[in-house]
Design a protein that fits this description.
Elements lengths: L7 H13 L2 H8 L3 H15 L4 E3 L4 E3 L1 H27 L2 E7 L7 H11 L4 E7 L1 H9 L5 E5 L8 E6 L2 E4 L11 E6 L4 H12 L4 E7 L2 H9 L5 E3 L9 E2 L1 H4 L7 E7 L4 H19 L1
Parallel strand pairs: 3-4, 3-5, 8-9
Antiparallel strand pairs: 1-2, 5-12, 6-12, 7-10, 7-11
Helix pairs in contact: 1-2, 1-3, 1-4, 2-3, 5-10
Length: 285
């Protein structure tokens, strides 16, 4: 069977020509060139198998069959617009940025919880550093950002505070007399900066031996025995140990998880409330 699906842009061009009586005016109305509109109409006529318009040097008018097709064309475009409106009404988009130091192994279950709250919500999630996400949030590229506390910011709602430690692989030993080998996130990273400041203040020499593009890469380096890293316990595989007390490293403070959002009500707000509660539970757990 021959595929006789119609090009909606061509149908729209035909309707505009019929209504305006001019290829030039129709082209302006649909934001195209006159040549492009003429080509679309020719292809539509070829697909239908008959002429829609009669052209003369002075004017453009509908053919007999074109006049009969015009109402069907308008109905087709109206149905298309109704379908788009229905989807837009049910699929609200919510763009969320989550810091790599916050989005842990629980992320799939957290997304599932949001989806259960509203299956019609179109969820877009970006994982990056807190600094990058806050810049995107300020540029209104994100509706919401869930991040660590960032220097110079006083906004954001506290979701939870999370314990951090100096984690290493089981059995890993620091070689006496050598700088402390650190696995860190790439700049900019607030946790990386904090770890360096605490070690410097304590007079403990250190050196970066691994720089990862994400927490998963850093945890892999730790478990491979490259060194220690400042991480939240829930980010580490079972068996990782907090080597801080044994090595005499400075205690890491509890670091807050903050919610920055412009969403104040409606379905998206309900989904964010569910997400925040799930994060709070994951951090406490």
């Amino acid at each position: 069977m021959t595929d006789r699906a119609l090009d909606l842009d061509a149908v729209k061009a035909f309707v505009r020509i019929a209504e305006l009586g001019s290829f030039t005016l129709a082209a302006e109305a649909v934001g195209a060139t006159q040549a492009a509109v003429s080509l679309k109409l020719k292809r539509l006529e070829d697909r239908l198998g008959f002429r829609l318009l009669e052209r003369t040097p002075r004017y453009v008018e509908l053919s007999a069959r074109g006049a009969g097709f015009l109402e069907h064309a308008r109905e087709l475009l109206a149905a298309h617009d109704r379908a788009l409106s229905a989807v837009a009404a049910t699929r609200q988009r919510l763009a969320i940025g989550i810091s790599d130091h916050v989005a842990g192994p629980e992320l799939p279950s957290l997304i599932a919880r949001m989806n259960a709250q509203d299956p019609q919500l179109l969820i877009e999630i970006r994982i990056a550093s807190s600094a990058d996400l806050l810049q995107s949030y300020d540029r209104r590229e994100l509706d919401t950002a869930i991040v660590r506390l960032h220097a110079g910011r006083s906004d954001g709602k506290l979701i939870a505070k999370e314990k951090f430690g100096w984690f290493a692989a089981p059995g890993w030993q620091h070689r006496a007399g050598e700088p402390l080998p650190l696995a860190t996130m790439a700049q900019p990273c607030g946790v990386r900066a904090l770890a360096g400041e605490l070690l410097d203040a304590a007079g403990i020499p250190w050196t970066e031996v691994f720089v990862g593009g994400g927490v998963m890469a850093v945890t892999a380096a730790v478990m491979a025995g490259l060194g220690v890293a400042a991480l939240a316990p829930r980010m580490l595989p079972f068996g990782a140990v907090d080597a801080g007390p044994r090595l005499g490293l400075p205690a890491l403070p509890q670091l807050p998880v903050l919610l920055h959002t412009r969403v104040r009500d409606g379905r998206a707000h309900d989904a964010l409330t569910a997400l925040a509660a799930a994060f709070r539970s994951a951090v406490r757990g």
